[in-house]
Structure formats: structure tokens, C-alpha cells
Amino acid sequence: MVAHLALSFWLVLAVDQSTLQDFCVSQPNAQVLVNGLVCKDPKLVEANDFSFSGLHIAGNTSNPLGSKVTPVFAAQLPGLNTLGIAMARIDFAPWGINPPHTHPRATEILTVLQGSIEVGFVTSNPDNRLIRKVLQQGDVFVFPIGLIHFQRNVGDGNAIAIAALGSQNPGVITIANAVFGSNPDIASDVLSKAFQLDNGVVKNLQSKF
Predict the structure, then answer these.
(1) Which residue pairs form cystines in this protein (predicted)?
(2) Residue 98 known to bind ligand
(3) Is 103 annotated as a binding residue?
(4) How many Å apart are CA 54 and CA 68, to the nearest integer?
């Protein structure tokens, strides 16, 4: 019984907290630090606090990954603060990727607006099973909270997707950047043993991130 109660308590805390008021529009310049963003005075709230313009604009994909994420989080849309949701537009050049990454605080659901996009996520240890599928326009795919996942444009034209996330601040940990681009560096002998790579290869990878 105690185990069931503990599990239930954990599940309740696995998502953003419920609001205690109609809204809490973020006050970005507030000097007070809280777990989230400080609320703007409700008397000063206006319609623009609940609106964002720009998702019709294609992201610049002229980078090594060939992708661009345009986020709509509480930082971009203050009215999202405390509401437990966010979204993003993802643009892909032909064969561009959104590299393996995780969202520590959110499940993600992806809808393809244009093109053919390969998606996948990896289950946790010990199975590490890859669940993958190629999506077409109008298809939807969900990535469970915290699991490593990726997207790749497998077409010769541009691709576009919209992602919805179950947190106002889902966070993102890009695996390669985090491991090989930490500040300061993780000791190369740690990474060479973890990835079973030559120390020189590890140092070369660190130099790229």
C-alpha cells in the first residue's frame, strides 16, 4: 500500500503543477527567482501577452544539422507561464536532422505539416530498443517524457513539423553537445572508456562541440 501511495505521489509530480488562478503572465525582468517565472500584475495584462506571431516564417536551416527549431515557450509567449504547455516549429533542409536529444520535463507530440520525416526514440536500459517510423504529411507521433529521440528529413525537399510539449519549459538536452561540449570538458579518459573510443577520437569530438 505504501509503495502504491509513493508511486501515485511521484506520478502527480511528473508534470507541471496546476494553476491556482486564471493565469500568470510571466514578468521576464523580475528580480525574484522562483521555480518558474514570476507573475505580471493581472491588472496590466493585455491580449498581446497571450499571442505569438512568427510560426509562419521558415527557420534558417543553413547550418551543419540542416534544421532549425523555433520555440514558443513561456519566454516567447508570456501567457503560457504556469499553463503546462509549449510548442515549436521545426524546419528541415533535405536530409537535415534534429539530432538525438531529450526533454527532461515534457512528453512531445509531433505533427508533420510538409515532407517525409523519420522519427524515433530509444527505450531505457537494459533494452535500449529503437522505436522508429517514417511519417508523412498529417501524421502524428509521440515521444515519451525523458527518452532520447530524433527526427530526420528523408525527402529531397524541405520538411516542416509542429511539436507540442507538456511543459511550459520542457528543456532540451542534445546528447552530443552535452557529452562532448560540456563546460568544463568531461575528462577524455572517462568518455573514451564510456564510448569505447580512442582518446584522440574523443578529443577531436570535443573540439567540434
Answers:
(1) 24-39
(2) yes
(3) yes
(4) 13
- Any bridge partners for residue 165, and if so which? 86, 108
Domain residue spans of the chain: 2-171
Question: Does 118 appear as a known binding residue?
Answer: no
State how far the Cα of 108 lies from the Cα of 145, in Å rounded to an integer.
7
**pTM value?**
0.84
Q: Smallest Cα–Cα separation from 139: which of 170, 157, 160?
A: 160
Does domain 2-171 bear CATH number 1.25.40.10? no
Residue pLDDT tens, the chain, 209 long: 444 544 444 444 445 666 666 777 887 777 766 667 788 889 999 999 999 999 999 999 999 999 999 999 988 999 998 899 999 999 999 999 999 999 999 999 999 999 999 999 999 999 999 999 999 999 999 999 999 999 999 999 999 999 999 998 899 999 999 999 999 999 999 999 999 999 999 999 999 99
56 marked as binding residue: no
